[in-house]
Amino acid sequence: MTEMFIRCNTEEQYAKWMAACRLAAKGRSLADSSYDTEVKSIIAFLQMQHPAPAPAINPSALDITPEDYVSPRFLRKFKGKLVQRILEAHANVKDLPLIDAKLNYIKAWQSLPEYGISLFIVKFMGHKKEELLGVAFNRLMRMDISTGDHIKTWRYNTMKAWNVNWEVKHMMVQFEEGNIIFSCLSADCKVIHEFIGGYIFLSMRSKEANQTLNEELFHKLTGGWV
């Protein structure tokens, strides 16, 4: 798999590229009727991130503890500027109705790079240090535990099989390019097995509302051996 970085000149150009990529990921083209709506949604989200001219609330009038709102890495990065940044972000949404504010929050959450990724601390066979394994709906990711940087990505469409050795609590996943074996330190390895099986099961279901649930297939995919 090859990663490409695309730099856009304007927000509108970025929105068009992002909308096109999102539709492509769903197997749709630019001719799809949802393309324009997707572009407008992305532009609206970008506008929400613009720094406000000034906070609506005086920073000195509130006792805000930044640790309650952001992760430690952002605390180190922004240090004394966080309260100002939080209040500037608040100024962009303070006049929104409650439902719109909640919807904007959900959109912002879904736009995060780590959205939908479940993280587990693991040790890969042959390696002594602990690493992160990210489990998403379409891929597994090997990640640096200190920085969160992606080291390796494996797509489910290249997966042959996955199973758990219950005696030693090791999990093996077979891909076309080779096998990976790891032990999970932050949860039972059965949890990762069930995540993968559940995502595979969901990908096999159609969009028909009247589709019956194949319980036998579900239990087979999330059980002990596949």
TrEMBL record:
Claim: Aminoacyl-tRNA synthetase is one of the keywords in the record: no
Any one Gene Ontology BP term: cell-matrix adhesion
Record keywords, A-Z: Cell adhesion
Protein name: PH domain-containing protein
Boundaries of every PH domain copy: 1-26
Classification via Gene3D superfamilies: Pleckstrin-homology domain (PH domain)/Phosphotyrosine-binding domain (PTB)
Pfam families: FERM_M
Family: Belongs to the kindlin family.
Matches recorded under InterPro entries: FERM_2, FERM_central, Kindlin/fermitin, PH-like_dom_sf, PH_domain
Record organism: Cryptotermes secundus
GO cellular component, one term: cell-substrate junction
A single GO molecular function term of this UniProt record: integrin binding
